[in-house]
């Protein structure tokens, strides 16, 4: 079984900011590249934080309103106007929460969920930025066609990995939902089959109608 990794799904040509990138330049980079956040790197390419549209908007919300409305109650007292020399280092969320290229989709998704972030800078063994992966990137595995999922389950999982005969288990896949029907030698192998099929990239759910094959010579 060949799982898609973060390295397979990430964006390689990363648009980034430096610690001293000014507010307006960040806005320009976000707009021109149609992205919602930028990793911020130090002088040797190590991610030190991420600056997002939300970070920029917090600074805007802290400015005096031209209509005389009071400042947002969530605004930082130390926030400065956008034209007051504020930089990426002052705006960014830090430290950067990073992933590795060899991670699976599950590993990256769990870290995003735990840390409450929408994207992860990806770093190599030297902690140097090599890409960025977003929630949308991880969800791309669920765009796999049903026939590709069926072929991987029937061929890679059932036959090559578990050594079952092609006639033992019938596999049906519709909209990523897998249905398994058939008979196997032991009941103990049924949860193993279900777990391996559920681990195939792009599978949404697994419904099992598998049963133990009765020994016809018994009795």
From TrEMBL:
Domain (CBS): residue spans on this chain? 10-67, 92-148
Coiled coil residues, start to end = none
Family annotation (Pfam families):
BON, CBS
Which keywords accompany this UniProt record?
A: CBS domain
Every copy of the BON domain together lies at 146-218
Q: Does the keyword Membrane apply?
A: no
Task: Give the protein name, as stated in the record.
Answer: CBS domain-containing protein
């Amino acid at each position: 079984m060949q799982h898609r990794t973060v390295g397979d799904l990430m964006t390689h040509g990363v648009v980034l900011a430096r610690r001293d990138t000014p507010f307006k330049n960040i806005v320009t980079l976000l707009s021109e590249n149609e992205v919602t956040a930028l990793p911020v790197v130090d002088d040797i390419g190590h991610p030190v934080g991420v600056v997002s549209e939300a970070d920029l908007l917090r600074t805007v919300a802290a400015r005096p309103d031209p209509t005389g409305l009071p400042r947002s109650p969530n605004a930082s007292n130390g926030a400065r106007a956008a034209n007051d020399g504020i930089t990426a280092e002052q705006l960014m969320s830090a430290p950067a929460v990073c992933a590795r290229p060899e991670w699976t989709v599950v590993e990256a998704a769990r870290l995003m969920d735990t840390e409450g972030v929408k994207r992860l800078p990806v770093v190599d063994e030297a902690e140097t930025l090599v890409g960025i992966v977003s929630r949308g990137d991880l969800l791309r595995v669920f765009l796999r066609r049903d026939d590709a999922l069926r072929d991987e389950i029937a061929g890679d999982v059932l036959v090559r990995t578990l050594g079952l005969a092609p006639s033992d288990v019938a596999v049906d896949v519709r909209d990523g939902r897998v249905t398994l029907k058939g008979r196997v030698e032991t009941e103990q192998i049924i949860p193993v089959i279900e777990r391996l099929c559920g681990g195939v990239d792009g599978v949404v759910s697994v419904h099992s109608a598998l049963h133990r094959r009765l020994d016809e010579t018994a009795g």
